Amino acid sequence: MHSRFKFKAEDFEQYFLDLMAGRRRNWYDRVLTDVLFIASRFYRMAIQFRIWMYDKRVIRNHALGCLVVSIGNLSCGGTGKTPVVEVFARTLSSQGRRVAILSRGYRSKKRSLGYKLMHMFQSQKIEIPPKVVSDGKDLLLESDYAGDEPYMLASNLRDVAVLVDKDRVKSGIYAVDRYQTDVIILDDGFQYLMLKPHINIVLVDSTDPFGNGHVLPRGILREPIKNIRRADYIFLTKSDGSHKLRHLKNFLRRHTRRAEIIECTHRPQYLVELFSGGRREPLEKLKGAKVAALSAIAAPASFEGFLEQLGAELVLRDHYADHHRYTQQEIIDFVNQAKAAGAEFIVTTEKDAVRIPKLERCDVPIYYLRIQIDILSGQESFDQCISRICFM
């Protein structure tokens, strides 16, 4: 029953994504598109009113007594935010700062009622503490309770605490008290106005910056494009280093003169075998190989494009809704399909890898593609940003 409900919810989500992209052409789709457009006008007004309330101090935001760096988007997903959060956390930690990442843990499992009751009986505090994915030394939660991105960050970062809670004021106070944190990275924090950031970093996908330009639910934007003026730094992700981005930069400059613009690319590093204790393979393994691609991310075409650019022949590809949590049967079925299609191995994303259940037997090896950020232009601005954080 739960699995059937999950698929219906994902199909519903995909239907609305198709509507936003204009891929639905029936008359009732056009009617619904008009309804979504009207709803997006009201949503836009509500967003702007909320921001005005914070600007005028009608609603007060909180300070934590440490430096807060917000990294977020204007759009819903697909900008490649997690590798950017990782590179900031790793760089700041290497500079001697005590770093904690605060995430809301999108689609992570909630704690059981038993845990909450036990905490209330064992502690004098009624408030439930945040979920600690990593204390900087040990990985303390599985991916289903942590959420995909927090688990991935905690797995890749040492000496960085990773905490999950919808109330990031609470988790920030906890990080400062428990771990003596002096820099907090607010993951997906551009719309989280309850914490006032000292530095606002906004990511823009250079391959599809703003979708159709509409806010939710008619488009993919969480707030109007003009609000990018709140940014101190703008990262153009998935850049290819070409001069085509000149128009995008000029467009952004019309909305903000003060923000530094940094171009970066998500560059594949190596393959990691999923069920073999993390054994690495060079990217040359993909050249001329018959590969099956599996993903459940916001931009699967980008991932599949990487594989093809590296010389793989994709004999099978399948993608689910973003953040889909695979069942064992789904993976077994895909392995069998990959085998039948003649695939030498399966490749998935690092974010998907944390959601794939372990198989006792796997007839086709499964790898994930490790991605890291490279700065293409604006390295001085990036270094300045790091220095600004370190010496604030």
UniProtKB/TrEMBL annotation:
Family: Belongs to the LpxK family.
InterPro entries cross-referenced by the UniProt entry: LpxK, P-loop_NTPase
Pfam families listed in its UniProt record: LpxK (PF02606)
Name of the protein this chain belongs to: Tetraacyldisaccharide 4'-kinase
Record flagged with keyword NAD: no
Highest taxon, organism lineage: Bacteria
GO cellular component, one term: plasma membrane
Alphabetic keyword roster: ATP-binding, Kinase, Lipid A biosynthesis, Lipid biosynthesis, Lipid metabolism, Nucleotide-binding, Transferase
Pathway connected to this protein: Glycolipid biosynthesis; lipid IV(A) biosynthesis; lipid IV(A) from (3R)-3-hydroxytetradecanoyl-[acyl-carrier-protein] and UDP-N-acetyl-alpha-D-glucosamine: step 6/6
HAMAP family linked: LpxK (MF_00409)
Reactions listed under catalytic activity: a lipid A disaccharide + ATP = a lipid IVA + ADP + H(+)
PANTHER family with a match to the protein in the record: TETRAACYLDISACCHARIDE 4'-KINASE, TETRAACYLDISACCHARIDE 4'-KINASE, MITOCHONDRIAL-RELATED
GO molecular function, one term: ATP binding
Binding residues annotated for ATP, in chain numbering: 75-82
UniProt keyword Lipid biosynthesis present: yes
Function noted in UniProt: Transfers the gamma-phosphate of ATP to the 4'-position of a tetraacyldisaccharide 1-phosphate intermediate (termed DS-1-P) to form tetraacyldisaccharide 1,4'-bis-phosphate (lipid IVA).
One of the GO biological process terms: lipid A biosynthetic process
EC class (word): transferase
